[in-house]
Design brief:
The protein is an alpha/beta fold and 267 residues long. The chain has two domains: 4-93 and 175-266, Rossmann fold (3-Layer(aba) Sandwich), CATH 3.40.50.300; 106-172. The chain is built from nine helices and ten strands. It has helices at 49-57, 84-90, 101-104, 111-121, 130-140, 157-169, 187-204, 215-219, 248-266; strands at residues 4-16, 22-34, 38-42, 64-69, 77-78, 94-97, 175-179, 207-212, 224-229, 232-238. The strands form two sheets. Strands 6-7-8-3-9-10 form a six-stranded mixed beta sheet, sandwiched between helices. The N and C termini lie far apart (51 Å). The chain binds adenosine-5'-triphosphate (ATP) and magnesium ion. The site of adenosine-5'-triphosphate has 13 residues, from β2 and α1. Residues 15, 17, 23, 25, 43, 45-51, 213 line the site of adenosine-5'-triphosphate (ATP).
């Protein structure tokens, strides 16, 4: 079996605007993700990070390229070619966490129903099992089971992200894709969420693709960092070898995140 869980090959995504202007948001992106590792994707606003994730999830189909997924007990498939029921079934293996769970969650659903919804949708549990399963998932995400009957607006931002993690992890996916999942949180809450993700990774062998604009943050836990600039990959570096980054853009990102850290310390 291949060490790689995902092989992203020559992925290009173009958007056509109303006036026939074409934007190449992702330009010939190629990289692999190994099973059980965290790959971070960093780069400035507008460089194509979200577009790439939406392509990997096939929420917004790519223009060209391949996204080869090697599930544990099934045959390799090209996610980019999946449609309809096959695509829906694939979300059993690959889940996504967004920046802000407020918009991702139905405001009229209780937390217990939100976090167990994937299990109900995939017919893994029955409605009568929701309370018990929700309690288990809340514990996994280090939230009190008292949150079960609350609505999303009755949770803090950090607690909502924990609920989003519980929901994504509920169906035991192989990959969780996170788009700026901690960016709206203050630094100490951010650290705790990262610790939770790392703990779950160790316990469950999860693979993460973690999009962030914060190089300093991802260098603390990512095994590898893919640096994007204007739709292209400029460098792929090991998380613990960031100081050896060669590309001028990575060096500039690194210097600006160090400056920001220093400013944080000062204030
Ligand atoms: N649906 C769309 N139609 C047209 N252009 C789009 C669309 N979605 C994204 N873009 C453009 O594609 C480029 C990449 O956008 P994307 O959202 O992937 O950036 P990003 O790296 O995630 O930025 P941020 O860090 O601000 O979230 C941008 O120029 C954006 O304007
Ligand atoms: Mg984005």
């Amino acid at each position: 079996m291949s060490d790689n869980i995902l092989e992203i090959k020559n992925v290009t995504k173009k958007f056509t605007l109303g006036n026939d202007k074409i934007i190449t948001a992702c330009d010939n992106i190629t990289f692999n993700v190994k099973r059980g590792e965290t790959v971070a994707i960093v780069g400035e606003s507008g460089c194509g990070k979200t577009t790439l994730l939406r392509g990997i999830m096939n929420i917004d189909p790519i223009t060209s390229g391949e996204i080869l997924f090697y599930p544990k007990n099934e045959n390799c498939r090209d996610i980019a070619k999946l449609k309809g029921e096959e695509l829906r079934k694939n979300y059993r293996h690959i889940q996504m966490i967004f920046q802000d769970a407020t918009t991702a969650f139905n405001p009229r659903m209780r937390i217990k129903n939100i976090i167990t919804e994937p299990l109900i949708n995939f017919n893994i549990i029955k409605k009568t099992e929701i309370n018990e399963k929700a309690a288990e998932l809340l514990e996994l995400a280090e939230l009190s089971k008292d949150y079960s009957d609350r609505y999303p607006h009755q949770l803090s931002g950090g607690e909502r992200q924990r609920a989003a993690i519980a929901r994504a992890a509920s169906i035991s996916p192989e990959i969780i894709v996170c788009d700026e999942a901690t960016s709206a949180l203050d630094v100490s809450v951010q650290d705790n969420i990262i610790k939770l993700l790392v703990k779950l990774q160790r316990e469950k062998g999860l693979t993460y693709i973690f999009v962030s604009h914060d190089l300093a943050l991802v260098s603390a836990f990512a095994h590898r960092i893919v640096v994007m600039y204007m739709g292209k990959i400029v460098e792929i570096i090991d998380g613990d070898k960031l100081q050896e980054a060669k590309h001028p853009y990575t060096r500039a990102l690194l210097n600006s995140s160090i400056t920001l850290c220093k400013q944080n310390v000062k204030h």
